[in-house]
Structure formats: structure tokens, C-alpha cells
Amino acid sequence: MKKICLLLMSIAVMGFTSCGAVAENSTASAEVTAVSLSAPNQAAASASENTEAAPSRYTYTAEDICNLQDFLLGKPTEEVLTGKPYDLDRDGRWDTFDLCLMRSEVIRNTDPAPDNDTLVVCFSRTGNTEKIADYLIELTNADSYFIEAAVPYTDADIKYQDNNCRANKEQNDKTVRPEIADPLNSIDSYDTVFLGYPIWWGEEPRIIDTFLESYDFSDKTVIPFCTSGSSGIGTSEKNISELVTIGNQLEGRRFPAGAGKDDVKAWYDTLPLNKGNEDMKLKISVNDTDLTATLADSTAAKELAEKLKAEPVTVTLNEYGGFEKVGKLPWPLTRTDESIVTEAGDIMLYQGDQMTIFYNSNSWSYTKLGHIDNITAEELAELFGEGNITVTLSY
Ligand SMILES: Cc1cc2nc3c(=O)[nH]c(=O)nc-3n(C[C@H](O)[C@H](O)[C@H](O)COP(=O)(O)O)c2cc1C
After folding, report:
1. For the domain that residue 131 is a member of, what is the CATH number?
2. What's residue 109's pLDDT?
3. pTM here?
């Protein structure tokens, strides 16, 4: 428990040292050490007059994190903080533990990939199709949604040797639509939907039909995939195309139960949507390693892509705060700053003319430029090392 607290404390210290304020680099860490080890007078005073324990329904935002950070650093705050529920651990004062808890909550509540345009949907009763879906999610970095039946399928329900089992009865009646537990509210933000299922009696399970009829696919690219004992995917593909209007239904793929990640990758690489995606990637070369990044949907990201199409640029990024590398771009880009809690791999525009690559989290106002693909925080931190780095960007 003690170890966890110390770890949380050090994460908090790392997190709020800069809040992106590069100009204050030299003094920030000294101030923070003092704050983290003993609560400042201001915080102690506020505990009696300001502090309200966190109510369960309060939704913390990036602004709250900045407020509390500024408060703990003794800086003026944008808002009056009287009555704010910042005593999350209910110990009668505002301190770095509250900041840790607040940051965790904001990160938890943040849409994991708001710019993601691909969704992997899967129904799997015995895990075979789920495994394929997991490989796909890993390959594509897509969002995922696993369909669960409101009334779960028991082993007896899928015992297809029994003519009267639930699955057989459902497959015998094309009009049956088993209810889905916790359906997605919307799929509007996605352009591409991978749709996975097992073959039941040569077709897609009826619950897949429930899913398809619940949303509008008329502007989506849909790519079916399935697992089966031996039957092909053809009949289910035809059923799907006849059931709802689909913008662009790509040829699907049937996998045997034991298919591996390489099989899934080999198929994924043949899909016509890959080429388009790769063309859209920002390339980042650092310390002889080539990374790719998916551009954000921002004016600045589009401007960056245009600039890099003309010629690659090399930028020196300085280490800052134990969570980011930041450096000046040769040109300013359009700022559309918003309060953001960053994640490792995020690429942000800072103050309109600096690029920041995060290998850890911070909260501040940035304009999104993109996100580095398929790399963990640990791998990124190791690649970047402790000092300044030089990166070459191309598109
Ligand atoms: C009710 C039922 C019907 C099935 N019908 C077929 C079939 O027609 N052809 C086939 O090759 N496999 C059939 N199977 C086998 C499944 O397609 C196969 O085990 C699949 O990998 C299960 O996927 P899951 O683990 O994702 O649920 C059937 C399985 C069940 C439970």
C-alpha cells in the first residue's frame, strides 16, 4: 500500500511540475518538492474554509486539475476555488494525493481514442472469434465493442446437436432478433466497422442481425470476419448485404479457430483501406527508429501534413518535466487549444509554434497534432532517453 502511495505521489509530482509551462522549467521542480512533502500554508488554510469532500457525482475536468496544480504551487487560479470538491481522499486538506486521484479519474473518464475512426465489433460465444478480434484491435488500434446477449447463451443454448436448443431455434427463424445487453449508443463517429461472429448453421448468429438493424451503416465501410469449424463466410456476407444498407462492404474472411496473429495481419494487410491509412501517416524518425503517427483532426495537423509534404523537417526537442520532449517548429500552426490530459504518444502543438511529444501524462491547453501508433509509454520513454532528442518529421 505504502509503495502504491509513493508511486502515486511521484506521478503527481511529475505531472504538475510544468503544466506545459516551458518558461518555468528551471524553478518548477524545486517548488513542487516543497509542496509535495508538506502541504503549503495556503492549502492548509483552505482545508478549513474551502474544502468540501468530493461528492460521488462530481465530474472532474482538465480545468480542475490545472486549478489544483496552480493552487498547490501557490499560483493564482483562473477560478475561485471556494467550495470546490478537491479533497478527494477526504483527509481534510488539498494535497498531491488529491491531485493523483483527480488525474486518474479524468484519464479514466476521457474518451480513450476520440479521433479513432475504426471500430471492431465482435460476438463470440466460446472465444474463438474474440481471439481474432483481439488481434485486429491490436493491429488497428481500433475501438472495440463486444456484443453480449441480454439473455446470455448458456452451454445448453448452443448445443447444436440438440434440435431444440436456443441457437438452433433462432437460426431456423430469420425474423428472430435476440436483445443485446448494453447496446452502443451510436456508431456515428466511426467510418470503418469490422464485424466478427461465429458461423452458426452456415450463417451469422441472429444477434448480429439485431446489431446491424440498430444503426445506420449507409456511410460506413463494413468488413465481416468469422470463425467456424469449416463453413465459409459467403452466406453470412450475402445476408448482411441484403439486411441493411451498407456504404461499402468489403470482402470478409473466415478464420479457423486456431488462426494466429500472423494470419490476421496477412489478411489485414490486403485490405484496400490499409493503403489509404498508411498514406495518412506522419513519419517520425528518432534515434534510428522510425515511428508512425496518426494525425489528429485539427487544422494544425492538416497544415503540418502540407508543410511536411513539401519537405521533411528536423526538430530538436528538449526534455521537459519527465513527461514530454518539446521543441520549436520552423513555422507556426493554427492554434485551437483545448484543455487536455495527455497520454504517452500524444503529439501536441504548444503555444502555436512548438511541438510536444509526450511519453507520460500531463494536463494543459494544447492543440492536437496526432498520436504515435503502436508504442507503449515504457517503450517511448526508453527510446527518447533522458536528454534532448532530434526528430525528423516527414509525410
Ligand atoms: C449453434 C452452432 C452452430 C454452428 N454451426 C456451424 C456451421 O454451420 N459450420 C461450421 O463450420 N461451424 C459451425 N459451428 C461451429 C462454430 O462456428 C465455431 O466453433 C466457432 O469458431 C465458434 O466461435 P466462437 O468461439 O467465437 O463462439 C457452430 C457452432 C454452434 C454453437
Report:
1. 3.40.50.360
2. 64
3. 0.51
DSSP run (H or E) holding 351: none
Range of the domain at 173: 118-268
Minimum CA distance residue for ligand 1 atom 28: 200
Question: Do 312 and 375 share a structural domain?
Answer: yes
Q: Is the CB of 234 under 6 A from ligand 1?
A: no
Give, in order, the Cα–Cα distances in Å from 254 to each of 143, 241, 282, 353. 21, 16, 32, 48
Same domain, 122 and 255: yes
Is 320 found in the same domain as 251? no
Residue with the smallest CA separation from ligand 1 atom 27 is 125
Residue 273 lies in a domain: no
Query: Which residue, 339, 338, 323, 342, is CA-closest to 384?
Result: 323
Q: Is the pLDDT of residue 8 over 70?
A: no
Between 42-51, 107-116, 323-332, the lowest mean confidence (pLDDT) is in 42-51
Q: For residue 171, what is the enclosing H or E element?
A: helix 166-171
Ligand 1: which residue has its CA nearest to atom 7?
201
257 close to ligand 1 (CB < 6 Angstrom):
yes
Q: Would the CA dihedral through 298, 300, 303, 305 be positive or negative?
A: negative
The total number of structural domains in the chain stands at 3
Residues 42, 61, single domain; the answer is yes
Of 34 and 323, more confident:
323
Helix (H, G, I), strand (E, B) or coil at 286: strand
Q: For ligand 1, say whether the CB of 158 is within 6 Å of any of its atoms.
A: yes
Is ligand 1 within 6 A of the CB of residue 200?
A: yes
Distance from the CA of 121 to the center of ligand 1, in angstroms?
Answer: 18
> What pLDDT digit, counting tens, does each position of 184-213 carry?
999 999 999 999 999 999 999 999 999 999
Q: What percent of the chain has pLDDT over 70?
A: 82
Whether the Cβ atoms of residue 228 and residue 198 lie closer than 8 Å to each other: yes
Same domain, 137 and 261: yes
Q: Is 128 in the pocket of ligand 1 (CB under 6 A)?
A: yes
The residue out of 108, 129, 161 marking a domain boundary is 108
The reply to whether 125 and 89 lie within a common domain is no
pLDDT surpasses 70 at 12 = no
- The pLDDT confidence band at residue 270, using thresholds 50, 70 and 90, is confident
